[in-house]
Amino acid sequence: MFLVDISVVIVNFNGAKFIEVCLDSLFASEISYAYDVWMVDNASSDKSLEILSAYKDRIHLIKNTENTGFSYANNQAINQASGRYLFILNNDTVLEKNTLQLLVDEHERQPHLGAICPKLLNADGSLQCPGSSLGHWRFKQDRARFVPFIAGAAFLMRKSVMDEMGGMDENLFFYNDDIDMCRFLRHKGYPILYFPEAKVIHFGGLSTQYRKVGSLIEGYRGGIYLAYKHYGVVAGILYRIVLCLDLFVRIIANLFNRELLGGYLHVLWINITNDIYLPRIKKEPRL
Fold first, then answer.
1. In angstroms, rounded to a whole number, what is the distance separating the alpha carbons of residues 282 and 50?
2. Residue 184's closest CA among 157, 203, 209, 145?
3. For residue 119, how many other CB atoms are within 10 A of its CB?
4. Spatial separation of the C-alpha atoms in residues 136 and 115, rounded to whole Å
5. Distance CA 60, CA 112 (A)
6. Where are the domains of the chain?
7. What is the pLDDT along the chain (287 residues), one digit of tens a residue?
8. Burial 19-35 (b: 16+ CB within 10 A, else e)
9. Which of the listed CATH numbers 3.90.550.10, 4.10.520.10, 3.90.960.10, 3.10.20.30 matches domain 4-206?
């Protein structure tokens, strides 16, 4: 039984700089649908919890005792959410007042969709295009269109589709979750719609500021994992061979950058050993 139309899910890690404006823009939405908000804090060390305490009567807050990763934290909220739609939203975003209404209205018109996403804008109002530069042309048009890939910063999908997917892959700690989701949707024949009439400002890179090298490592590790998951052993091995060549170039180019050198050497070790699985983190949250 669905208790609300939309459950908004936000994972926060050290997002004190933006989380207040994100929530304020969400609660300022002009929307005719009932919604609730699920916030999962991944053991932030900044003032996030202090800021979130002001919203305690307006959000469901899950406080993790350690950083469990983006996918795992999203699943914590998804598994408890009661909305027939899920709106997955990054903490470093700002919604226009009609964004959520427009997305749900369009999904109601096209219930067969796998997911629908808004136009993403940089802080200066310029267009933010997700994915490879070869596909950016798809997002530079002002009309809705079906696309093979959307960014995970803001998207709406039916709860039933997320359940069919089994939630987010918890072996993806940070990054690559959107690639994995879109691959699943395409495989199942669910259309993915880019709907530029709805807009979201995405500051981008907020979490990576706090763990730049960690994000680099996770990006590569997740890429290897997805090669095996979606394309098989042979593709995975070929991917690792090509990646070795890329890493050798990057290691040489960063010989005098101790931080990045350490990161790329770590990725090289992961690639050689094929150590692509996370240790399971099953900490009970503080509700």
1. 25
2. 157
3. 23
4. 19
5. 29
6. 4-206, 211-273
7. 678 999 999 999 999 999 999 999 999 999 999 999 999 999 999 999 999 999 999 999 999 999 999 999 999 999 999 999 999 999 999 999 999 999 999 999 999 999 999 999 999 999 999 888 888 999 998 999 999 999 999 999 999 999 999 999 999 998 999 999 999 999 999 999 999 999 999 998 544 444 578 889 999 999 999 999 999 999 999 999 999 999 999 999 999 999 999 999 999 999 999 999 998 654 444 44
8. bbebbebbeebebebeb
9. 3.90.550.10
Chain-centroid distance of CA 163 in Å reads 17
Give pairs for 254-260: CB < 8 Å, separation 24+. 259/212, 259/213, 260/213, 260/216
214 and 264 Cβ atoms separated by less than 8 Å: no
Contact 14, 45 (CB under 8 A): yes
Select from 184, 203, 202, 239 the least CA-distant residue to 71: 184
Q: What residues contact 213, with CB distance under 8 A and at least 6 apart?
A: 259, 260, 262, 263, 266
Q: Token pair for residue 256?
A: 């005098």
Residue 11: DSSP 8-state:
E
DSSP one-letter code for 286? B
Both tokens assigned to 203: 């500051």
Query: Residue with structure tokens 């998804």?
Result: 78
